[in-house]
Amino acid sequence: MQTRSEETRARIVQAALKLFADKGYEATGVAEVCTAAEVSKGAFYHHFASKQAIFIELLQEWLQGLDAELGKALSRSSSVPEGLMAMAAEMKGVLGATDSRLQLFLEFWQQARRDPEVGKEMVAPFRRYRGYFSQIIQKGIDEGSFPPLDPEVAAHGLVAVAVGIVVQNVLDPGGADWYKVLQDSIRLFISGVSNTRAGVVPGGR
Amino acid sequence: MQTRSEETRARIVQAALKLFADKGYEATGVAEVCTAAEVSKGAFYHHFASKQAIFIELLQEWLQGLDAELGKALSRSSSVPEGLMAMAAEMKGVLGATDSRLQLFLEFWQQARRDPEVGKEMVAPFRRYRGYFSQIIQKGIDEGSFPPLDPEVAAHGLVAVAVGIVVQNVLDPGGADWYKVLQDSIRLFISGVSNTRAGVVPGGR
């Protein structure tokens, strides 16, 4: 059961998420968040040091949820290629999200350019994902699914594809079936990694 | 030789580019652009209907220049895989850009969410690139470089990789050698396309 304090905190986060997404981070004031959440300023500052703190918390909450889903998808799978496809399937909810989370993505990035503190928090997950997927590719090599190749090179490519699809999904939701694009692209990626021989540059035939 | 009118117009564009990138689009007023460009408001409105018009012009100028470079790189190449690598090489300047153009990218996207007019202009190039690269992949199939596969699927993957790398390059310039990441990723992509058989889903081995 949620305590009253937890319930208040959750209400602040929800109100801030909606306001940031609707009006933008910069245009939203703490006073507005308090009004929307029906809490006092004192209650706000009991839970969050600043507007920025709540912004960073929103980002981290969102990614923690995503990470947990991706981790589960991988652990259910019997090989890394299968795991990557299962992880792509987990993204269906993210890409189809009608809530304001994904819309907030661009706001985070915009804010990251202006504020070094937010910038550091924003860049960290990208670096972490590149490291995380390097380990997964290495596991794929170790289990014999992939030929020996530089796992970091492959991880960079994989994260780039995912980022590029999430961005286009936000900007142009009706432009494609982004979930299908993600699945097709991960399949192409697996095909590419499987076809790569260490040190060989496929540049034509 | 530039006429005086062209020179004035170019000065407005340069001033606006710098202000939009430094302060953001929303925070920049036409009056400031005029001051920075050392032109009258009358001169500004002679060239541009609104702040939004200049914003869209900046985007289009930037993409036109890029498109010309990409087209040249492709036409110099003797095969599509070689052409794709040559196009990746053309991106070196874009990814290493120390000017404010690339920084403006996020501002465009942010603005696109808020303003349907900008949104339409912003979404159009993505769709155009997906169409353009579909044609290139089809050419690769026709010339025998690639097996028969759905060129649209491949084009989506290719554009996603490029978008994901450009975004990460803007957010985290020091996080990787993004030019190398692009080259490696395009190579992986070519490898993946070459390895794909129509209707076959590589999901493991």
Please give a structural write-up.
The structure is a homodimer of 205-residue chains. By secondary structure, the first copy, chain A, is mainly α. Chain A has two domains: 1-48, Orthogonal Bundle (Arc Repressor Mutant, subunit A), CATH 1.10.10; 53-195, Tetracycline Repressor, domain 2 (Orthogonal Bundle), CATH 1.10.357.10. Chain A contains nine helices and no strands. Chains A and B meet through helix 5, helix 6, helix 7, helix 8 and helix 9 of A and helix 5, helix 6, helix 7, helix 8 and helix 9 of B.
For this entry, give a set of tags.
homodimer; 205 residues; mainly alpha; Arc Repressor Mutant, subunit A; 2 domains
Spell out the blueprint of helices and strands:
2 copies of one chain form a homodimer.
Chain A: H1 4-23, H2 30-37, H3 41-47, H4 51-75, H5 80-95, H6 101-114, H7 116-142, H8 151-171, H9 178-195
Helix pairs in contact in A: 1-2, 4-5, 4-7, 5-9, 6-7, 7-8, 8-9
